[in-house]
Amino acid sequence: MAKVRGAIVVDVEKCKGCGVCVPACPSNVIELNKEVNGKGYHYSFMARPEACTGCTNCAVVCPDGVITVYRIKIPS
Amino acid sequence: MDIAIKDIIKKENLVYTKTKLMTDNVLSYCPGCGHGTAHRITMEVVDEKGIQEQTIGIAPVGCSVLAYEFMNIDMVQAAHGRAPAVATGIKRVMPEKYVFTYQGDGDLAAIGTSETIHACNRGENITIIFINNGIYGMTGGQMAPTTLAGMKTSTSPFGRDLHSMGNPLKITELVAQLPGTYYVTRQAVHTPAAVRKAKRAVRKAFELQAENKGVTFVEIVSNCNSGWKMPPVQANEWMEENMFPFYPLGDIKVDGELVKK
Ligand SMILES: Cc1ncc(C[n+]2csc(CCOP(=O)(O)OP(=O)(O)O)c2C)c(N)n1
Ligand code: SF4
Ligand code: SF4
Ligand code: SF4
To answer: At CB < 8 Å, which residues of chain A contact B?
Structure first.
């Protein structure tokens, strides 16, 4: 069976650190960073990137539309 | 065999990015506010239908007064509550265009009640997207007609008292009673599943508009973290527990017929 791997890219300077993407991720990939962006927001990032399946849930629910999602199938 | 992140993040593997029909301007909304998501799904529908050139939006007064800065289409900004009247004029002059209003509950259900009800009763061929967050967001969280019983706002600091302040208004159920509405639904945008469903509703509303069926009306029950004085994730939970029982999600009128519950 082919394995699916995903990755997200957060537009760090446009992320408002609202945290809405965090519970939306079924694979518990995302956390808010301890660091802040230029506006002082704790921007989101992939804390557990290996668990991302590229399901797009986080991007679909992000109010600011700052998440881009990539997905790849890895033949086993 | 494992794969490096940089090998996943490649153009050919792209599965989701913000539609080009949302401009690159930073949204003026508070962190976590559903307005941004509601904007984006509307623009995704316009993008996927390929109707950017044929779509005209009417922005309201309220937090989304600047919607024309964010939606990459032709837009007009109307006086408070008057968006359905402006939409009526535009649609009648240019019936081949897709015309929609985007309005908050203070705009649509308070100062604009007359315009809302008469446009819906006349059966104008327009789409109304109604963001119900139960409060006046822009002006600092005052009580709206849609504010829930017992809900605290800056003008009902001890909670809305029905005896002295009246009942919350289910304007969506009200317009569904009118003969001019064809499709009336209530949605939300706080979870991925809700967003996908709300987007299907917006698409349906636009498609029916092209068939000249009358008003298509999509309410989106949304949060106002700042007005409700809660962090965004907590506001979404509060919305599920308190707003949804009074404003239940789902279709209210389909194909011109009220949905039997
Ligand atoms: C004629 C007029 N009356 C009052 C106002 C003040 N005002 C601005 S926004 C607003 C309420 C907006 O609330 P809502 O429509 O619920 O939108 P939200 O900000 O919550 O998205 C009011 C009363 C105004 N701008 N114009
Ligand atoms: S939902 Fe969007 S804006 Fe909010 S924390 Fe996540 S990436 Fe940032
Ligand atoms: S794409 Fe899916 S799995 Fe990956 S971070 Fe987003 S929600 Fe989680
Ligand atoms: S005040 Fe409320 S409705 Fe307005 S942007 Fe902030 S959270 Fe959204």
So the answer is: 5-7, 9, 14, 16-20, 22-24, 41, 49-50, 54, 56-72, 74
